[in-house]
Sequence to fold (272 residues):
Amino acid sequence: MYLDGLNPSQISRESYYIGYYSRQQNVELKTIKKAYKEIEVTKKSTDKLLKKVASLKKRKEKNAKKLLKQKKEKAKVIKKINKKLLTQKKKKQKLIRNEKKLTSIFKTLMQKIKADASKEKSKKIKADNKSIPDSKFDGIDFKKLKGKLKLPVKGKIIHKFKSKRKDTGVAWKGLFIKAKEGMDVYAVASGKVVFSDLIKGFGNIIIIDHGKGYMSLYGNNSFLLKETNDIVKGGSVIAIVGNSGGNLNNGLYYELRKNSKPFNPLKWTTLK
Fold:
């Protein structure tokens, strides 16, 4: 500027401006550098946070997969339980239907017996006193044999009257006596065979009419040795032990009924 011959006042003014600009530029540069450092710190913090977010996302995805797997397993368990409940429900319904069918048979038999009794008043259906195996019971009606009857087969009572079935919750209407396959089944008292056939759910059964509405039922047999209308004595072999009813054990299903309604056989039985 001196060489160009500028005015000294102007030179002084220009020098001041240049110095001011230079100082201001240094201030701006320092501010920019500081901002860059802050940006760098922020970037590092952001990167760290992004890594943390990525880790959380990965963990979340892993947990989501785990939860989905657990959900699927839970769905399988629920499906299995529902299937089991449905099977039990069907089994219970089937058992109830079978028992209704059996009750219906008893009612039909009672109606037939009453009809026969009305036709032949002189020939009342009652126990054949001469056929009772023990002579001390001669002339005694079945209703007076309470506490004197013996079980129709030797074995262990594993299900009692009115005890609940584990699979369905339905109560037993008689006794289940566990016995070896092939053993003889005996009539508990004399009477007339009024039913001898297969019933689904009960197997091969025999029903004996002992007179005055009293009947005895013997189910789950492998073979039946007596036919409908046969007259049997107390102690007569009427069937062979088996498992035609599809139970867990071989044995005999035994009922006593009065006017088609079941009652507890044990109260009529002596185990001596």
In short: The first strand starts at residue 156 and ends at 159. The domain at 88-268 is CATH 2.70.70.10 (Glucose Permease (Domain IIA)).
